[in-house]
Amino acid sequence: xxxxTLFRVPRINVRDAATIAILMxxxxxxxxxxxxxxxxxxxFSFLATAVLASMYGPIIAGIVGGVYDVFVTLLIGQMYLxxxxxxxxxxxxxxxxxxxxxxxxxxxKAILAQLVITLLVNTFLxxxxxxxxxxxxxxxxxxxxxxxxxxxxxxxxxxxxxxVVVLGNPIMQKLIKSRWK
Length: 181
Fold this sequence. Notes:
mainly alpha; about 5% strand
């Protein structure tokens, strides 16, 4: 696939808007299911983001990721930290780069996408945003980094397996590819 195809913003019709809204709602629901502690959060919301990015590409996925992050943060009354919006946009964009318009599903692309997101976004950027936050004043970047590295070592293989199982499902592939036509 060439670069112009990858970064072309697809036309969004009413059906697409409804699909995006459903995937945003799924992201919200899957974000509530998981492990939630003050320092470590593990949810399944990345699956809906990956499906959205597979269907609509990096540009739409990045925009939706950013809008979703701002909307949900304000909706549930959390303190808004712009760095996490940057992380949400980047994660969705990276999924789109690796997964959009791959005619034959490649588990390796899904695994590589998750690995890049784990290293760049989850481990480095999110740790940076946490260390810069006034909510966590007094804790250094190194303290957060060690905690988050342990979390990433445990959760990343689980995320990779789930991505391959969900995105590799023939029914899911048919749904994703039906959007490309």
